[in-house]
Amino acid sequence: MTCLPAHTDKRLGLVIDLDTCVGCQACVTACKEWNTGGHMAPLTDIDPYGGHVDGVWFNRVHSYEHITEMGGRTVNFPRSCLHCEQPACVTVCPTGASYKRASDGIVLIDEDKCIGCKLCSWACPYGAREFDTDVGVMKKCTLCVDRIYNDNLAEEDRVPACVAACPTSARHFGDLGDPMSAVSQLAAERGGVDLMPEMGYRPTNKYLPPRAHTQRAASVPAKALEPVKAEGGFLGWVDRMLSS
Amino acid sequence: MHPAFSVVFFTTATGAGYGLLALLGVLGAAGFIEPDFWLGLAGVGLALGLISAGLLSSTGHLGRPERAWRAFSQWRSSWLSREGVSSVLTFVPAGLFGIGWIILGRLDGWVSAAGLLAAIGAVSTVCMTGMIYASLKPIAQWHSPYTFPGYLIFSAMSGGVLLDALLQGFALGSAILSVASALLTLLGWSWKLATWRYNDRLEIPTTANTATGLAGGTVRSLEWPHTEENYLLKEMGFRIARKHAAKLRRITQALAFGLPILLLITALVLPWPLSAMSSALAAIAQFAGLLVERWLFFAEAKHTVTLYYGR
Amino acid sequence: MTHRQPRGANSAPSQRPLADTRAPAEGDGVDTSPDVSDRIAKTTCYMCACRCGIEVHVKDGKVRYINGNKDHPVNRGVICGKGSSGIMQHYSPARLKKPLLRTGPRGSGEFREIEWEEALSIATERLSAIRRTDPKKLAFFTGRDQSQSLTGWWASRFGTPNFAAHGGFCSVNMAAGGLYSIGGSFWEFGEPDWDNTKYFMLFGVAEDHDSNPIKIGLGKLKARGAKVVSINPCRTGYNAIADDWIGIRPGTDGLFVFALIHELLKAGRVDLDYLLRYTNAHTLVIQEPSAAHDGLFARGDDGNPLAWDRVAKRPVSAIDADANPALTGSYEVDGRRCVPVFQLIADRYMEHGYSPEAVAGRCGIAAATIRRIAAELAHVAFEQTIELPVAWTDWAGRRHETIKGRPVAMHAMRGISAHSNGFHTCRAIHLLQVLLGTVDVPGGFRFKPPYPKSAPPGPKPSGKTVKPMTPLDGMPLGFVCGPDDLLVDDAGTPLRIDKAYSWDAPLAAHGLMHTVIRNAWAGDPYKIDTLMMYMSNMAWNSSMNTVETIAMLTDSNEAGDYKIPFIIYSDAYYSETVPFADLVLPDTTYLERHDCISLLDRPISHADGPGDAIRHPVVEPDRDVRPFQSVLIELGARLALPGFVKDDGSAKYADYADYIVNHERTPGIGPLAGWRGKDGAAIGKGEPNPDQLQRYIDNGGFWHHDFADDQRYYKMANRSYLDFAVQMGFIPKAEPIVFQLYSEPMQRFRLAARGHGRVLPPETERKRIETYMDPLPIWYMPFEEAAVDLEKYSLHALTQRPMHMYHSWGSQNAWLRQITSQNRLFVHHRTAAAFGLVDDDWVWIESINGRVKGQIKLIDGVNESTVWTWNAIGKRRGSWGLKDDAAESNRGFLLNHIIGDQTSADAQGKRYSNSDPVTGQAAWFDLRVRIVKCTDEEAGFTEPQFERFHQPPHTEPSPDILRFGAEFRHEREAAE
Q1: List of chain A residues whose C-beta atoms are within 8 Å of the C-beta of residue C239
Q2: Which of B305, B306, B307, B311 to mutate to test the interface with A (most CBs of A within 10 A)?
Q3: DSSP annotation string for A157-220
Q4: What's the whole-number mean pLDDT along residues A69-98?
């Protein structure tokens, strides 16, 4: 059913901290590793050892240089499905393969219904959809739907693979529909933003902007150093300090 | 957007086919056309042939064509599904119209009703096709007021030029139709020029800044997430050099619009069968020109995902 | 105390599972609880040198999934990009399958498969002959292995001094710089106090050393809003997230640090109390130019260094806790003029030449920025001090009610290390830390046990006498304290093939693996017979000057014999080095073997307690391969090396696992410290425990001991810690460890250069020794920069490993190589504009050593006089299971081709190894280049190109499509 649910009970998603992401690719391969054997298995790799290698990945990390009057910054930028509230990738699907879950808001694909028309990938502004040419169907981030509720994993491990892996704690997970949830609070506190808000897709995932060159930047209120004013200069100062 | 031939051919062929079908249906029902067997066979055959070839071609774009039947289910939300439903439904009156005309040799009564219904189906299907593209927000060149009318105009234009060529071929040509086709082509030309003008001046609010949430200044792509091109880049990262595009635009204008108008007007003053040949040439040139136009429609369309790749 | 954290690093409220993890009734048929694995094996990762704990999920005998072990002290549950890609390393098509014996010319890759018995017989016969005649004719060098306590011991039992691992071309400058200064160092020797620091300075760190702990730490700093300052020419990775990026010019960090010291001294912002308590700042240095003891410490009759008591106005023992030592002034002791170390420090670094203005131009950093950083350091260190409410007692028995800390932490690595001035720069950073009083204090830099040790630590290198059939009298690697400890003969000729511990590289604590191939080829200082190597890609990215290195490996004499007569190599993969071996011993992957990460070697301790770990086989090899360590133990037994055989001549250890449990280096001390003693109750010292490995496995593959609260800081002078360290065998005596701001061992070399002492450098070396063995940190221009025409070679060229491949070769990994399969040369856009270059241009990158071709990418975040690229992405065709059209061998390039392995000839025509003159550390980053646009015909492909390697017998072509994981889904769906 590609009509969108009028309401979702939860809005599960990620908060990604661009101030902290070092671009290590941990989330990228953790995602690949889990999902290539998971709900949408496999994440096929074409020509894996050759010159035209092209694999299916649900999460990819770009790097950018953001240059403003205040200075430049290198920004590592993980990109994956944002599990939008208004996901046109779902509504354009002619077969009902794509759908948004009413319970938790996760956008999923029912592979058995997918005809591989690729229209959903055209409709997604964010490039979150990945076509598996080998199987002939579209695949995408499941928000680890087969982890977050998985009775076969220890309770503490029931988070998306990318969040569990992230060594810098730049990734956060939770219900962004609940303003009191830890992720919502984090996003509010750090000024989390939507990507391409003008598109009107209302992404669930939030990105926390870098703090450098902003009021949120870490700073040290240090006064300029003055030479010691003791008689005999520095050495005199040392003697006085030791004597006191 | 990658101009996949299957999709380029699909929209061009079905556009012409549905245009022709709609005109045959309306003009047949209105009694402007004699229920001639050969004309029926050629006309309805060509229209349905183009439509079928186009639809078949479109399945070439599918990863799992054997499941194509599933595409009829989501007509409530999906323009693609609606297009599928509409195209299949249109085959019913179109088939009856063809049977009535070709086998029963009549264009009155229920056959004319079928013709009208087929025309409605044809127009509706073209509308759906237009909406598939016009509704895609990530592609600003498509998500524009020009896309939907454009599909209708090009369908009517190419259908008209085809019908004119057919009638001319059967020595049934009418100056009114030829002039109308030329005028439609002129309209198409104007519309395309206006579309290009609009697209060339398009100020897209979506930028690398909004794509990354990094406000102010410039955002430059430093490294892709992967060295080689991936699906996104292959499907949506197509780039065409400005010079190359300009050349193809000139070819489009010549083949799809300029030459057909010239040939249609020439046909008016030429004796049969030269007039028929001229009209046929106009249709062939236009079809070829529209293939180029449609190729450009994809090639010049920029998907927002390319912003992530610094394109 | 803040050290007790919830389980796992990613355990913030915003990283936890949903409050209710029951699947909602969505009714979409999604299986939200698929079965993940049949069993979970907890072992240690080996995708890089970081040694994180991993949980390997095995399903149907196949590795389904690897994640981080939340209890593990190194990674606390997180896992990096490499770790998660371990599956692809494990199942790589480049894996070797059987022992190989060379059949074609060396370097061709033509081999025949042989059985292990034949392989071991060939090796035994060859090595046995060497041992009977001249054991040093075996050069045994290992790479990134984590078993150096075994391999080094094996070499010593064999009787060859020619042993080292890859540290000489990695980061020995950091290790030696730290160990000679503070008895510890960065990475494996210490770590920032991530939980308490408020100001963190990161010098020359890309992804390197170490991976997850730094990332976890940076995450903590970011979460707390602590300030991160990075000093690095490149603004990538960790440097990208710095609050303050200082894009320094390569090789000038020492000057930058001196300018900070200059400013701090001038402003009186140094911790005098700390200096008096924990350093030799007050130790008296004899000032008698041209005397044999000039620059040595004034010592009392008991041999202890002396200080001057300000109150008593007489010399006292420098370690007299009750004295009032002077830090400045000049005093007469026994008729000799002496000054405290601190006076020398003040004299030197307060010179105008070290002022911010004086260094700004060279460093490419504005003087105002340097002053600001100095002010910030002072502010945080002295105005934002922290105190932990924990009482502790120092070595002298003085009780302190709280633990005081100055929350400035620093970390430095290869950007400092890989320059010919790296040793001194590293010492400069430690000097800065110590002046601020931030070493092993809350919020500062903290030691990881078994460090700190005395500066420098204990045993000296052995190998002065090499005799047939005789083990060395110690381990091949160690720490020299003066010329007497060098491994040189009477003529000053090096005794080791790599010239470690010679006048060329006196403090070569990790050896000089990067010189071995050239020296063995040249027969300088002597010819060898067999070069045995393990896990180091010396015919490609681990060598400088690759083209010539390859030529040396394949060069033959007039008789047609190879100049390096025999090469034995062990690797798990078909690397670029395998084809150059005569005998190939195929290793297992890390999931198929036993290993121990030992306190005798490079343990997994963290600052809050010691730890060690094991690997154990998770899956059985499906090929005829054996773990190299077990092979080495078997070779040891076949050669009847002492320690490897019982009295009856039979093998003492069945395999590596047996060795790990039962070997005792000294009574009671073995490779693993946990669960020792018959009942497993002892730690550190105790009898071997037959169940030890099982106890490790049961505990998640590691052992870790958590310190009591009063043992965690001031370890250099903390009685409770020092007692524990003695008990564990880390240090011989519970004496304070005094930071050596002034290095007396280095001064002894200088005195030798002036003609004093028993062991003297040859005349030609004296100036060099005098210059570079300065007992206080100095700065000098990196050698290549000083030698080349800077107008012509106007750019610095650097490399970094991408994070997803750091300390590993990822190109055989189907996942990692997708991320980076072609490296670009990153060029600042203004620099490119000056050269008339635009994005994507192909350029020749030229140095005095040659040229290599690659494609450029314009960048903003780099020092303008610097270009850089990702290292070791360029691969040779026919290696690593890659296809011929792979980007790695067509578009990627290896900068090593143009990095000289020798310096330019000096006035006497001598060429030294391209290394630090103190430690022999390879000076990778001294490289100077220019870039020239290619012609159109030359664009699009890299050069130089090399002949394609033949593939080993029975090599299947690498697959065209990889559907890894499909089988798990099929199994699941079939089961439904």
Answers
A1: 74
A2: B305
A3: G-S-HHHHH-TT--EEEEETT-TTSHHHHHHHHTT-B-SSGGG----S-EEEPP-TTSTTS---
A4: 96
Strand partners, B303: B139
Show which of residues 115-144 on chain C sit within 8 Å of chain A, judged by CB atoms.
none
Length reported for chain A: 244
At residue C170 the predicted structure's pLDDT band, cuts being 50, 70 and 90, is confident
Token couple for C79: 């896992």
Q: In sequence order, what are the residues at sequence separation of 6 or more whose Cβ sits closer than 8 angstroms to the Cβ of residue C110?
A: C102, C103, C104, C950
Which pLDDT score is estimated for A1?
58
Q: Is the Cβ of A94 closer than 8 Å to some Cβ of chain B?
A: yes
Q: Which residues of C116-128 are buried (b: 16+ CB within 10 A; e: fewer)?
A: beebbebbbebbe
How many domains would you assign to chain B?
A: 1
Q: Which residues pair with C445 in a beta bridge?
A: C192, C439
Nearest CA in chain A to B208: A196
Distance CA C375, CA C356 (A): 12
- Domains of chain C (ranges plus CATH)? 13-90 (2.20.25.90), 595-704 (no CATH), 793-938 (2.40.40.20)
Per DSSP, the three-state class of B142 is coil
B210 alpha carbon, distance to own chain's centre: 33
User: Which of 142-181 (B) contact A at CB < 8 A?
Assistant: none
The answer, for B220 touching chain C at a CB cutoff of 8 Å, is: yes
B60 reaches A (C-beta below 8 A): no
Nearest alpha carbon to residue B207 among A183, C749, A197: A197
DSSP, collapsed to helix, strand or coil, labels residue B199 as helix
Please report, for residues A143, A222, C590, the alpha-carbon distance to residue A5 in angstroms, rounded to integers and kept in the order given: 18, 54, 48
Q: Which of A57, A146, A223 has the CB atom closest to C31's CB atom?
A: A146
The amino acid occupying position C93 is P
- Taking a contact as any Cβ pair under 8 Å apart, which residues of chain C between 898 and 917 contact chain A? none
Could C21 and A155 be called an inter-chain contact, meaning their C-beta atoms sit closer than 8 Å?
A: yes
Overall average pLDDT of the C731-747 stretch: 97
Between residues 151 and 190 of chain A, which touch chain B (CB distance below 8 Å)?
none
Which domains are assigned to chain A?
12-208 (3.30.70.20)
CB-hemisphere CA count at 13 Å for C443? 25
User: Using a CB-CB distance cutoff of 8 angstroms, which residues of chain C are in contact with residue A26?
Assistant: 78-81, 83-84, 215
Q: Is C840 exposed, middle or buried (0-12, 13-18, 19+ CB in 10 A)?
A: exposed
* B220 contacts on C by Cβ (under 8 Å): 860
Express each pLDDT in C872-909 by its tens digit. 999 999 999 999 999 999 999 999 999 999 999 988 89
What's the mean pLDDT in B216-238? Answer: 96
Q: Could you read off the pLDDT of C319-360 as tens digits, one per residue?
A: 999 999 999 999 999 999 999 999 999 999 999 999 999 999
